[in-house]
Protein: Glutamate racemase
Organism: Cyclobacterium amurskyense
Amino acid sequence: MAIDAQSPIGIFDSGIGGLTVAREVKKLLPNEQIVYFGDTAHLPYGDKSTAAIQAYSVKIADVLIKEKCKLILIACNSASAAAFDLVKAYVASKALVVNVIDPVVSFLGKHHNGETVGLIGTKQTVTSGVYLQKVNNLGVGIQMKSLATPLLAPMIEEGFHLQNISKDIIASYLGQTELKEIQTLVLGCTHYPLIKNQILEFFNGKIELIDASETVARSVADLLKFNGLLAEKKTTEKDKFLVSDYTVSFEETTKLFFGKQIKLQKYPLWE
Ligand code: DGL
C-alpha cells in the first residue's frame, strides 16, 4: 500500500497524556489531520506487564492503519519503551512509526552533555531501562538518575492534579534522594506536562525541565518531510478522537486542548 501525504497522522496513548504531544503536532503542522486513540479502558499502562502493553499497542496500531494513517506516533513513554520495535515490525511499510523516547535522548545528547539528568516516569518506563541504555550509548558523560512515579499519571488522568492533594504527592516523589543532585529533569511520561508548573515550583525553578512534546512534534515533521509526506494543502477532514472507553475527564481535557466542538468516538479494542 502506498502511503499518501494527505492521509492522517495517528497518535496514541493510554489516555489524555498523548494529547500534550498531539497539541504540539497540530501547532507545528496545522495542515495535517490527526486521528487520536486514547486507550482509556486499559489505563494506566505504566503498571501493566510488557506483554499486555505490547498487545494493546499492536491492536491500536491496527486501528490506526485501518484509519489509513501515514505515520503512527506512540505518544506514550510506557508503550514506546515496551512496544516500539514490535509496532514498527508489525506496521512494516504501511506507515512510519515514531516513539517519544528517541527524540528526547538525541536532545540530551545535543544540549546536556556531562550533566546529571533525572528521569521520572511510570514503572514500565523506568524499569525497562530504555532511557538509561540509550543515554549511555550516546557516550557524552550524562549521569542518569531514574525514579518511578506511578501515582502521577492516574492522578492527572482523573483531574486531581488541579487539587491540593497533588502537591503532597508530587513533593513526596520529587524529594527522594535519587533526584537530589540533578540539573535537568526529563518528564518521561506524556501526562506530566500537565503538572509542569507544580514540578517547577517544587524545584524553585532551579532545574531545567524537559517536556518532550515540542521535540517529538519536530521529529514527526522532520520524518514526514524527509519522506515527502507532509500534507501539501490543509486537510478538510476533521480530527478524530477515538477512545476504548468513554470518560468525562478525557472529554474535558480534549475539549480544553482542541476546542468545544470535538466529539469522542467510542472504539472498543476487543468486542
Ligand atoms: N502517558 C503514558 C506515558 O507516557 C502512560 C501513563 C500510564 O498510562 O501509566 O508513559
